[in-house]
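Lecture 7 notes. Example A: sequence first, then its structure tokens.
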Amino acid sequence: MGPVVTIKQGGALPIGEDPRWAAIVVRDHQADGIFYYSVRTTGVYCRPSCAARRPRRQNVGFHATCADAERAGFRPCKRCKPDQASLIEQHATTVAEVCRMIEHAEHMPTLDELAHHADMSPHHFHRVFKSLTGLTPRSYAVAQRAKRVRQELERSHTVTEAMYDAGFNSNGRFYETSNAVLGMTPLQYRAGGARTGIWFAVGECSLGSILVAKSERGVCAILLGDDPDALTRDLQNRFPRANLIGGDATFERFVSTVVGFVEAPGRGLNLPLDVRGTAFQQRVWQALRKIPAGSTATYGDIANRIGLPKSVRAVGQACGANALAVAIPCHRVVRRDGALSGYRWGVERKRALLEREAKQ
């Protein structure tokens, strides 16, 4: 991930201190669309990522939009074509169209079919799709099938009806898929998670109270707060008919491992996770897990990475639905101006986590 560009308001920064110049120096694609720069000696304006020879700093001016640059008398660069959609934007649009195709397909499309629709070679399409969404085309298709399984199990009168309505012709494949994405059998899911076992315990860490819950598949919740009882109620609301089991001494040691990770996120959590969510949420959370400790990304960055640049608000909602604090690092997502907001466990905890990671 490239450097996050934060543009300060209220006047230009001294030469050498303006983060926009730093973005030009490294040709940061993530700054494209945030600002444009003009070169006085050539009369052109460019994207920050332009591959043309780097101009002298004293000849560079900054503009918020293409229109601003053109009103100032500059013409668009013929190399990076700042007045046209960037290659990343074109790819994002194409991938978004392919995602819609996958979502509405009765059967899972092949890679060749998807690549043909995108007018790319299968290898190039696979690489572009994964770079923008964080998922392979097949993984995204499987996630869509999982979404359909959930919808049909909630709507249909019987599991058999749900199986066929979700597009499955085989009991074995249906149960294999449903167990993997639901963490339980279809019948248990229809019953609200009845009879599934979830072990949990509440402890304390430097951020306050912490609840850690684990299913047979892995850690399914890491919740932070000030009130242990409120955290327990939150868990009950998430799994209304599950069998919640208080952790024993062995589980307490498991919780200690998670607490240690919260105190030092940079070292990673080497434990299996039971991540449950919609296809869109899964894509967002996959992208979040790729943000390195000590770095941040904007909601817009994440929307672009999953191939849906206009879904910034939905990305924020997916961050808010995250039940695995720190393990899925939604605290590393900031507003476009760099401000901290929107953290379900409190902005002060978000600030503390970012400061802690910056020192590691």
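Example B, a different protein, same format:
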Amino acid sequence: MSTDAELDLSPASRTIVVKVGTSTLTDEEGRLDREFLPVLANQLCDLTDQGHHLVLVTSGAVRAGAELLGWSARPKKIALKQAAASVGQGRLMAAYAEAFGARGRLVGQILLTRQLAQDRGRYLNAQNTLQALLKNGVTPIVNENDTVAVEELQFGDNDTLGALVAALVGADLLLLLTNVDGLLDDTGAVIPVVPYLDRHVRELAGGAGEHGSGGMATKVQAAEIAGAAGIPTVIARGRRENVVRDAAEGDDLGTRFTPSTQPLKGRKHWLAYGIQPRGALQVNEFAYRAVAFERRSLLPAGVTSVTGQFVAGECVSVLGPDGAEFARGLVTCDAREAELVKGKRTDDSPTRGARGARSELVNRDDLVLLPSA
């Protein structure tokens, strides 16, 4: 197969990211269900045979490792999680390689960390790797690198990872497979379509699942991240027969989240969701309106408080007068200097000479308004 084959961009070809959680991959006793993996692989292979491009984001390494180590419960300490992931990742990939190999398909392992997403260059390198695998007929299998990720640099759940991967590959659909039929309303009925995310929808989402790190709340957050990139999300029961094929064909199942009609693309989406803020700048009403409605840079005069420890070039949250985050951006100075210049006009800034012409704290080209705000 040619190594420079182009990705098929015809209307009939779609890119679909499927995320499968630990609760779906394990049996009733919490062990990795090796009979289910071929069922899942066959559905992805069927779609690949039809010309679609599939990316699988999988959980289960920690659970598989705990099983091999003889642990009855998922470990809670991060060192034990890393040990279990180290043992279980190889076994999990071997099981996937066997399942896809039975259909003549190759798989490629990609382990990502939040630290990678922090750096734009490395983020784009991951994008290039994913595209290269898809161009050459290989199914990427993505997981968080739990063996080395420290707590502050973890994605925290593979729902978020799945949404970021969907944005990376420009997916047409993000499918989150779980152990429930979808997002449930107050009566316990599945909500078929969520046209937009509001407070009530977020309140309907629950906590973490029994065997995994994510829950419905993280899936709703993932739908927000994907939706901001213009990608619809479907949450559905992973053990439903033909769930991947049916979701890809647009069948009425689970809960479908409608994407934004004004999506963030490329660097703006990365600024909004790819980076973890290292601190926050709270602003007054005048600065809030200038940034949110007039798309201006954030100047020191409009900042009322500075929190966190950050250096120039790192991401910070921008909070409105009410304390709610409404934007994110790359700051031009460290936290110490931001504290010195907050509330001051440029002419009055004690560091004006050192800052030179760079009077803004966050330039408008490095600012993004959050769709959720």
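Note on Example B: DSSP finds 14 helices and 13 strands in the chain. Residues 15-268 form a domain with the Carbamate kinase fold (CATH 3.40.1160.10).
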